[in-house]
Amino acid sequence: MGALTLRLPSLTSLSSAAAAAALPRYHFCRQLCAPLRSVSAAKFSVQSSTVEKEIAATPPEIEPASLLPRLQLEKDRVITPRSQDFNAWYLDIIAKAELADYGPVRGTMVIRPYGYAIWEAIQDYLNVKFKETGHSNMYFPQFIPYSFIEKEASHVEGFSPELALVTVGGGKELEEKLVVRPTSETIVNHMFTQWINSYRDLPLMINQWANVTRWEMRTKPFVRTLEFLWQEGHTAHASLEEAEEEALQMIDVYTKFAYEQAAIPVVVGRKSKVETFAGASKTYTIEAMMGDRKALQAGTSHNLGQNFSRAFGTQFMDENGERQHVWQTSWAISTRFIGGIIMTHGDDAGLMLPPNLAPIQVVVVPIWKKADEKAGVLGASSSVKETLQAAGIKVKLDDAEQRTPGWKFNFWEMKGVPLRIEIGPRDVSNGSVVVCRRDIPGKQGKVFGISMESSSLVAYVKGKLDEVQSSLLENAKSFRDSNIVDVRSYSELKEAIAQGKWARGPWSASDTEELKVKEETGATIRCFPFEQPEGAKKCLMTGNPADEVAIFAKSY
Amino acid sequence: MGALTLRLPSLTSLSSAAAAAALPRYHFCRQLCAPLRSVSAAKFSVQSSTVEKEIAATPPEIEPASLLPRLQLEKDRVITPRSQDFNAWYLDIIAKAELADYGPVRGTMVIRPYGYAIWEAIQDYLNVKFKETGHSNMYFPQFIPYSFIEKEASHVEGFSPELALVTVGGGKELEEKLVVRPTSETIVNHMFTQWINSYRDLPLMINQWANVTRWEMRTKPFVRTLEFLWQEGHTAHASLEEAEEEALQMIDVYTKFAYEQAAIPVVVGRKSKVETFAGASKTYTIEAMMGDRKALQAGTSHNLGQNFSRAFGTQFMDENGERQHVWQTSWAISTRFIGGIIMTHGDDAGLMLPPNLAPIQVVVVPIWKKADEKAGVLGASSSVKETLQAAGIKVKLDDAEQRTPGWKFNFWEMKGVPLRIEIGPRDVSNGSVVVCRRDIPGKQGKVFGISMESSSLVAYVKGKLDEVQSSLLENAKSFRDSNIVDVRSYSELKEAIAQGKWARGPWSASDTEELKVKEETGATIRCFPFEQPEGAKKCLMTGNPADEVAIFAKSY
C-alpha cells in the first residue's frame, strides 16, 4: 500500500530519470571524485592552515579589545541549516560542538574530549557485551610484514591501494617494508597458527581496541579518515556452523547497540558478493539512514570461512586426530559510528545526542537578575546537580557568569544535551525546577513546576531521559520507513534513488548488473535485509525468480 | 646507623672495586651492546620462527599420539629458577603464564588476554584518577609530519635515532615523510596553538591512551618494545608554578598507584639533567627496584617549561592583554609497568600478582576421588564461586576434569593468582573450605576450616586479599631497603654497584662526571629522591658541598 503510493512519483518523472540515465559517468564521477565541494567540506581534505576558533572558547563580552573583530565575526557565524547544506551543517556541528578537529596530516582527525567521550560510552557498552559473549581483549602489533598482506588474494587486492608503509626504522632502510595495519586478519592468523593445536583450543575468541590506517582519498571527519579508532573481534572455530553462529551473534550485538544505545534503527542484513569484505565468505552489516537519506555502513561482521586459515596454515587437530583448517570470523565498529549519530539525530540547532551515549545527559542552568537572588539560585542549582550526579546521571552545572541564560540554552542545545533544567528565583521559592527536552523545541518541550525533592526529581529526570531515548528512535524509524521505497523494476529503482530514497526490491541479477546500477545511479546494494517479505518474487532487473529483496541506496 | 653498617663491605673489598674500575669499557659496553645474552633473551630480538606452545593449552594426557613427543618435551620444561637466571626466568614466565608473545616484526609484542587484563586493571584505576584531577581523554593522530619533530632542538636529538617513518601512502611516495608517533608533544602543541586564545582557556588538561613506536635495538617483552601502549597526559598552564604543581601532582598519582595498586615501593624523585626527557625542563620519575636489583623507570612526569610552546608558538592572552607562551607538562605510564610487576613480585614458582591488579584474584579448585563425591564437591565449589563473584571478587572455578588438583595448584601459582580455595568431600560435609596464599608457600600459607557461609567467607577472602596486597608491598620494601647503600665516596659507590645494589650519596658534580660514572660502573643517576636526609652533605665525587643525595643504579 505504502509501496504503491511511493511508486507513483516515478511514473510522473520518467523524463528526469531518463536524463539521469543519460549521464552515467557524471553520476559515477560525483560519487568517486567529488569535483564540487562546499568550502567547509573541502577543508578536511587539505591541511588546515586557518585556525578555527570556536565562540565557546572565549567569551567576547570581556575579551581584550584587540581580539574583538575576530570574535565578532565568529559570533555572527552560525551553524549552516541542515536543510540548506547537509555537509556544511555536519562539518559546522563537528567544529562548534568541539567533537573533532583536523590533524596536520591530510585526512587525519583529532578527536576532542566531547567527541571522545561519546566513543568511551560506545566502548563501555560494547566491552561488556563482548565479555558477556565470551571474548577477551588483547593487543596485536600494528606493524605487519608486507608479505602477510599478500597471502590472501582478495585481501591484498582490496587493501593494497590504501596502505601506509613504513620503510625506514631507526635511521635505516628496512629489508621488508611494513604495513601500518588497515585491519588485522593477517597478523591475527599468524599468531593463531602458533596458539591453536587441538579442538580443545577452540573456539578462540578475542577482541582488540586499536587504531587503524587506510590511505583514503576522500575523507570526512568520523565517517572516513586516514586513521580511525575501532574494535576488531577475531575468532576461530572448529566448524563452519559455529563460525556462522558467531558472525550472526556479533551483528546482533551491533544491531541491539544501534537500536538501544544509539537510537539508530539500522537495517541488518547480508552484503552482496560485490560488497563483501576483502577476504570474507559472507559479510553481515548494519546500515543506517542518515538525515540526508544516504546510507552509512555502521558495523560489519564477517564469516571468513577458511580463507585466512588456508592462507596462513591455521590448523587444529579434530576429535578424530585429523588436521583441519579453522573457521573464522571478524567484526568491527569504529569511530565512524559517531558520524552516524550526528547525521541521524541532529537538526538545524545542532547536535542531538541519545541519552544513553551522551557525555552530558542533563545541563543545569541557573537564572537570576538581582544580586540578592544569586545565592539562592546557585545553591539550589548546585544541590540539584549533586542529587542527579549521586543518582548516576551525567549532569553539568553551567554557572559561568559571563554568559546569559539564553546563550547557554543555545549552546547546550547545539551540543546536543538531551535535557536542560532551568532554575530561577521563583522556582527556588516554589521548590521546583523547569525541565526542557532537546528533541522538542520551544514551549512544547518545556515542563514547569517539577519538584526539587530528590527522589521525585531523580525519578522524573530518569523517566524523561528514557522518553527522549525512545522518541529519538521512533523519529528515526518513521523517517527511515517513509524513505524506503518498494520497487519492482529498474526504472522504479532509478526513480527512488533520484529522489534520494532507498529502493527495496527483489534481486537475483549478476555482479555485472549490480555494478551497472552503481554506475548509472550511484546506488549500491546496501544489503539483503534479514527481514524479507513473504511470497514469490521476480528480480527487478531481469524478471527472473528472486529469493530475496535487496536494498539499494547511495551511501557514505 | 644502617648506612654505617651497609658501608662496611665496601671497605673490605676495595681491591675488587679497583679491578672493576680498570675495565671501564667492558662495563659500558655490557650495558649498551649486550654482547652476551641467554638463549631465551636473544629470542625476542630475532624474528620468532619456532613456535612456543604452552603446556596449558593442550592437556598431554589425552593428546592424540602424534603430538605426544613435543608435548612431553614441554611438560619437562619448567620455569628457569629466578635465582639461576633472572632474564630466562622472566621470559619463561611471560611465555608460560601467557602474558605475551613475540610479534612477527623484530621487537614487537603481542599482549595476550591474561597480560592485557593486567593493563586493563591499570587503565581502570588511572582513568578514574586522571578524571578526578580534571583531565579529559581525547585522541591525536599517530602520524606526525617530520618537520614537527625538528622544531624542538633537544627533542629531535633525543628521538630521531628511534623513529619509524612512513614514506609511502596509497601507493605513492609522500612529499613529506611521516613519523609514527614516538610521543605526542609536537602534534599536541600544534593543536593547542589552535585551541588556546586567552587565559580563560587554561589550564587545558588532556590525556590519551595510545600506542607509540620507538625503534629500539635491544628489546625485551613489556620492558622495551618497538611498539608499546601507554597513556600520555598533556597540559598547558598560565604560569610556571601551575605547571610545576601539575607535574608534581601527576608523579604523586603514579606513586600512589605504584604503592597501593601494584605494591611496588617506588622511589620518587627528580631526574638529573643528563637523564631528563628530551625537551623537558624537569623530569620527575618513579624508580622501582626489580628482583635482580636493577632499577626500572616505571613512570615519568615532565615539566616542559615553555620549550614546546616557544617552538610551536603556543600562546595565550593574559589578564593584562599581553601574549605569553603557555607552560606545559606531560606524563606517562606504559605497558612497561607490567614488566615491573612481574620482576618485583615473581618467584621461582612463577608470577605473583598484587590482588588489586590481578585478573583472577581467587581460583577455586574442587578435589574429589570417588564418583559419588563429584556432584557434592562441584556443587559446593560452584556456589562458592557465585558467592565471591556476587561480592565483586574476580574468581575462577577450575573444574576441568583432565587435570589433577596438584597440576592445577602449580598452574595457578605460576599464573600468580593471589588466593586458592580448595574444596574436597570432607570440606563439603564440614561446610568449610581451605584457603591458600600464593605469597606464602606450602602449609604455612594454608588455612583449613574456613566457613562456606556467604557473608563470613566473603569477609574472610576480602581480608586475606588485603593481607596479601600489604604483604607484597612490605616484602618489596624490605628488599628495596636492604639493597640501597648510603655512600660517601666514589669508591663506595663503585663497590655498591659492583654488588648489584643501589648507591645513594650526595652529588653536586658535573654532567661529565655523571657520564664517567656511567661508563665506569654501568650505573646512572636514577633520581634525586624527594626524600632527602637532613644535614650538610659533601659530593661523593668532588667533596664540594652538595644540596642533595642522588641514587645511582644499573637499570633496564
3D architecture notes:
- Chains A, B: Residues 1-22 form the signal peptide.
- Chains A, B: Residues 106-354 form the Aminoacyl-transfer RNA synthetases class-II family profile domain.
- Chains A, B: InterPro entries: aa-tRNA-synt_IIb, aa-tRNA-synth_II, aa-tRNA-synth_II/BPL/LPL, Anticodon-bd, Anticodon-bd_dom_sf, Pro-tRNA-ligase_IIa, Pro-tRNA-ligase_IIa_arc-type, Pro-tRNA_ligase_II_C.
- Two copies of one chain form a homodimer.
- The first copy, chain A, contains 19 helices and 25 strands.
- By secondary structure, chain A is of the alpha+beta class.
- Chain A folds into four domains: 11-96, no CATH class; 114-345, 2-Layer Sandwich (BirA Bifunctional Protein, domain 2), CATH 3.30.930.10; 362-468, Anticodon-binding domain (Rossmann fold); 484-553, C-terminal domain of ProRS (Translation Initiation Factor IF3).
- In chain A, the strands form six sheets. An eleven-stranded mixed β-sheet of chain A has the order 3-7-8-14-11-10-9-22-25-21-20, with helices on both faces. A five-stranded mixed β-sheet of chain A has the order 16-15-17-18-19, with helices on both faces. In chain A, strands 4-6-5 form a three-stranded antiparallel β-sheet.
- In chain A, a hairpin with a 5-residue loop joins strand 12 (315-317) and strand 13.
- In chain A, helix 2 (14-21) packs across helix 18 (490-498) and helix 3 packs across helix 19 (511-521).
- Chain A starts with a helix and ends with a strand.
- The relative contact order of chain A is 0.11.
- Residues 1-76 of chain A have low confidence and may be disordered.
- Chains A and B meet through strand 2, helix 7, strand 3, strand 4 and strand 5 of A and strand 2, helix 7, strand 3, strand 4 and strand 5 of B.
